[in-house]
Target: Isoquinoline 1-oxidoreductase alpha subunit
Amino acid sequence: MTRFTVNNQAIEYRLDPATPLLWALRDASNLTGTKYGCGTGHCGACTVDIDGRAVRSCRVPIGSIEGRYVTTIEGLSPERNHPLQLAFIAEAVPQCGFCIPGMIMAAAALLKRDADPSEALIREQITNLCRCGVYPRVVEAIQRAGRATRGEEVLPAGPRPGIDPADSARLVPALVPPPAR
Model:
């Protein structure tokens, strides 16, 4: 059994210590914001924060992080109002959205170390791959989040988490086909 903290909750995993952190998070903890991309640590879709460092979770056996602190995209801001999340929305960064959680987690670790990163530093540190090619907007979103973190800019509020039951799928009487005869 392996014990460490995930999103400020102590967790004991009854999994083989060689299990990649990615699968412990997704399968055992149902934290599906951390994505499986390549499985080799190259794409960055699975990036999480371990003790303040951006780490590719597909390459980390859970047995190697006993006693450490892991933060996933779900734990970054349960209300989805972290400056990076708001800046990514404001800059219209997400297209398909698959790479975004990993990019945000990598950027969060960068902003902890440097709240005013240059474009060159962002491009050097954020090596996550994006098939949609949103890199210029990612750079601007990270710099904008840095300005918000430093109190130089106020970001617009993002959408509330979850779906209001009144907005969920429902049958519209005019669109319901007539019963078969």
